[in-house]
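Q: Could you write out the predicted structure for this multi-component system? I'm mainly interested in how the pieces pack against one another.
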Amino acid sequence: MKIVCSKNFLLNSISTVQKAVTGKTTLPILDGILISGKDNQVSLTATDLDMGIETKMSSDVEVVEEGSVVINSRLFGEIIRKLPDITITIESDNTYNTIITCGKSKFNVVGQDPKDYPELPVINENAMYKIPQDLLKNMIRQTIFATAQDETRPILTGVLFEVKDGVLSMVALDAYRLALRKSNVDLSSNISVVIPGKTLNEVGKILDSSNEEVEITFTPNHILFKVENTRVISRLLEGEFINYRQIIPDEYKLRVKANSKMLLDSIERASLLAKEGKTNLIKMNITNNNMIITSNSQFGNVHEEVPIVLEGNELQIAFNSKYFIDALKIIDEEEVYLEFSSSVSPCLVKTIGSEDYVYLILPVRLIAS
Amino acid sequence: MKIVCSKNFLLNSISTVQKAVTGKTTLPILDGILISGKDNQVSLTATDLDMGIETKMSSDVEVVEEGSVVINSRLFGEIIRKLPDITITIESDNTYNTIITCGKSKFNVVGQDPKDYPELPVINENAMYKIPQDLLKNMIRQTIFATAQDETRPILTGVLFEVKDGVLSMVALDAYRLALRKSNVDLSSNISVVIPGKTLNEVGKILDSSNEEVEITFTPNHILFKVENTRVISRLLEGEFINYRQIIPDEYKLRVKANSKMLLDSIERASLLAKEGKTNLIKMNITNNNMIITSNSQFGNVHEEVPIVLEGNELQIAFNSKYFIDALKIIDEEEVYLEFSSSVSPCLVKTIGSEDYVYLILPVRLIAS
C-alpha cells in the first residue's frame, strides 16, 4: 500500500475513528486502526467489536498503490499530530512494515496484517431514516445523562429510540429519574430499539451543529449512522425496554413556574453543603410566590429562595440534588414547569410552550420532615 | 466579625491564598482560610507551615465589625464561586458560626477559632530587593523544571537564588541536567539562598507579566515576596547548594547552531517511539550542515534531519530526549547553540546573542553506538 494525504485531513479522520478504540480489549489488533487505500479512496476503520467507525477520505488523498495495513492507533495518532502541516506519505510492504514520511521526518513502524482485523458487519443501506444532525445531537445530549451507569440491568445503559406515528422519542432512565425527548420527524415506518449509551455518546461527538442530515439504518441487531463520510455501526442492546409511558403520570396537583437558570443556581448552591456531608439531599418548601430550598450537613446549612408562580397547594418535598441539576443543565429554555402531586410522588420537569421534553425525578422520602 | 465585599474581588483573593492550602496536612485547621477584618481592610491568610500567603483587600470592602474567623478553604471557595456577582456579607458570631449572605442566598457555615490558626513568621520588610514581575516570572519558568523531583537530596528540590556583583543567578539541577538563568539587576548586596521549588511554583502563578516590581526580603531562614497586596512567606531550604560553576565547562570542541523550534519538533517526534519502548533514548549524528536524530524501539524507528551550522568535527552522541525537550520548550529565542566536547561530556544549550541562559545536559553512554 502507498498513499499520500494531507496532514490535517488525516489527523481529523484518525480522531474520528479513534473513538472506537477503547484500549480495554484483550485482542491486541483492536488497539490498531485499519488503513486501506482502494479506488483512490483512503478509509480508516476502528472497532471494539461492539461499535465500529469507518471514515473515508476522498479529497486531498492519492492512492499510489492499493492495499491495507493495521497500525497502533495511539502511536499513529501521536506521530501524525507531531508532523508538520504538509503532505504525508504512508507506505507499507508485504511484511506490514510501514514507512511514514513527511518532509525530513521518516518513521518506520511495525504494522499488522489487515486479514487479522475483524470486519465490520455488512449493512444494506436501504431502510434509511434521515434526521438533521443538530436535532439528533441535542436529543442525545438531553437524554443520555439519565442512562444507568451500572450494568446490573444492561438494557438501562442504553437509550430507547422509538419512532411511532411520525414522532421520534428518545428515552433514558435509571432507578431514580427518566429523561424523555420527543420530536416530530419525517419518518414513516415505526421502530423501537435500544442503542447503547456508549455508542450514542461517541455519535454525539461526531455530529456537528448543522442541519445536514444523518442517515440511520437498522438491522435486527445493528444500527448504522452515516454522517457525511463517516459510518458508525453498533450492536443494539437486547431485551425489552421498560414501559416508560406507565411511569409518567398524566396529572398533577400543583404546578410551579420558575426561571430555569435561577432554579439551577439555587439548587447548585444548596447542594454545596449537602455534598460535603456526602449526601445530596435538598429540601424544597413550595409556598405561594416563593420556593425555599434548604440543605444541611455537619458543615453548616444553606437557605435559598427562588421566586415562583404556584398553581395549587403548598408542598414540602425532598430530592437528591444531583438529579435536578442534571436535568436543569440541559434545558435551554428560559422557564420551566415543575409538576408535583405529593411529597412521595415523582416530580415532572417540563419546558414551557413545548411538550418535547419530560424529565421525571423521584423524591427522597424523609422519615420526619 | 462582619464584612461586606464584592464577589469577584473576594473570589480572586481566595484563589490566591488557596495556593498555600495543600490538603495534605494532619492539622485540620490548615484546611481553612483565616479571614480578618481590621482597620477597614479585609485580609485572607492560608499556610501549610512551609509557605504562607496573605492577601489584603482594601477597595470594594467594608469592615462593619472587626474580628476574624477560620473557614474551610475548599467550601468557602466553592460557595463564593457559585454566588451571583453582587455584594456578599460575611458575619461570624462568638462561636465562629459564620453566615454568608448574598441576594436571596444564605449560608450558615461552621467556622473555627482564629486563635488556633498558626501565625505567619513576622518579617521586617527592610532589606528589600526589587525585581520586575515579568522578569522573575520568566526566571522561575526557565529554571524550575530542572529541580529534583525526589527528596533524596532535599537541597536539589529548590532553586538557588544568588546575587553577586549586580548579577542575579537562579540555578536548578538534578542528577542529569542543570538550568542556569542570569540577569543583571539593580541589587547591591550579595546573597545566596535556596528557595523551595514548591514556593517558586506558586509565586510564579501569582506574578503577572507586567513590569511592576515584586519586593523580596530575606531573613536567615525565610523569604518574603510582596506582590501588590499579596505577601508570600516561605521557609528557605537548609544546607549548601552544589558548586554549580564547577560543573559547567568553559570550553567546547564543536558548536552547532540550529533553529530552536525545528530542533524541538524533531526531538519530540524522534522520542515518540522511544517513549513507547519505555526509554527516552535518542541518538544524534552531527555532521556538516545536518543533524540526524534517530531512535528505535520494538515498535519501529524514526529518522529525523535538522539543518544546522557546525563548527568543529562531527560527533555521535545519545541523550534522554526528555531533558532536551524540557530545555528547548522554555527557550523563547529563535536560534540556539549546542556546545559539545565528546560523546561522554555534557552538552550545553545556549541562546544566541545572550549569555543569560545556560542549560547543561548529560549524555547517555552507549555500550556500542
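A: Regarding packing and overall arrangement: Chain A touches chain B at residues 72, 75, 78-79, 82-84, 97-98, 104-110, 265-266, 268-269, 272-273, 276, 298-306 (CB under 8 Å).
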